[in-house]
């Protein structure tokens, strides 16, 4: 299994990645909410194990404009979170629902769930995971997804040994899930702070699996 990480604009980086080398795109893109969570990651801005992260809660790059999914629809298998924000730009497909609250809290404060569009099919499938509920001290990204959720999605639409591309890598949860489920991973992130967090998380995961790891930091894509 291999891991490749790129710091830069995904549309530019993808020009150097052959389409045939990617089996699936699974990602949570910025989709125009211009979200800026006024929160601090844990006590005194510290993440898990006392490591300080100042990135949690900050504005997401490019989240101030509408998302165009068209560059990613050419791939055979695709999962895109936040599809309710750009549904008119997507063809018919499967709906994946992440239920992120306990039942007794439905209807209280923000959304009860998040949905993703999966290319092909027409069913609706749910996965409940409340592991990040209230766990701000363990969150490394404003829109971080639970590891269990990403494993569920990966195992639902890919096979062991496939190569998954996440063009909006964030804190790297999809990459960690790929390492733990035997998939190759290509991750792209435009924000240097989140890139550093993702790099560390994925390296920690792959060290246990002895997976080859390539980081492309010094590319023109990052300029």
- Tell me, briefly, the overall form: globular
Overall residue-averaged pLDDT value: 83
Oligomerization: single chain
User: How many distinct domains?
Assistant: 1
Query: Could you give me the name of the CATH homologous superfamily?
Result: Vaccinia Virus protein VP39
How far is the first residue's CA from the last residue's CA?
29 Å
The low-confidence runs, each spanning 5 or more residues with pLDDT under 50, are 36-56
Radius of gyration: 17 Å
Instruction: Please count the helical segments.
Output: 4
What sequence of helices (H) and strands (E) makes up the elements?
EHEEEEHEHEHE
- CATH class categorisation: Alpha Beta
Strand order of the largest sheet: 4-5-3-2-6-7-1-8
């Amino acid at each position: 299994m291999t891991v490749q990480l790129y710091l830069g604009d995904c549309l530019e980086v993808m020009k150097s990645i052959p389409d045939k080398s990617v089996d699936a795109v699974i990602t949570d893109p910025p989709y125009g909410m211009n979200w800026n969570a006024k929160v601090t990651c844990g006590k005194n801005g510290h993440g898990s194990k006392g490591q300080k992260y100042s990135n949690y809660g900050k504005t997401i790059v490019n989240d101030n404009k509408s998302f165009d999914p068209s560059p990613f629809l050419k791939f055979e298998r695709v999962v895109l979170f936040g599809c309710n924000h750009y549904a008119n730009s997507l063809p018919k497909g499967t709906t994946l629902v992440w239920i992120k609250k306990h039942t007794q809290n439905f209807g209280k404060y923000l959304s009860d769930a998040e949905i993703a569009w999966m290319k092909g099919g027409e069913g609706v499938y749910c996965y409940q995971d409340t592991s990040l509920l209230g766990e701000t001290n363990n969150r490394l990204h404003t829109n971080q997804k639970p590891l269990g959720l990403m494993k569920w999605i990966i195992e639902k639409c890919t096979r062991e040994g496939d190569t998954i591309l996440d063009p909006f890598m964030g804190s790297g949860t999809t990459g960690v899930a790929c390492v733990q489920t035997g998939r190759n991973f290509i991750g792209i992130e435009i924000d240097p702070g989140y890139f550093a967090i993702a790099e560390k998380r994925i390296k920690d995961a792959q060290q246990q699996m002895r997976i080859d790891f390539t980081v492309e930091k010094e590319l023109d894509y990052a300029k």
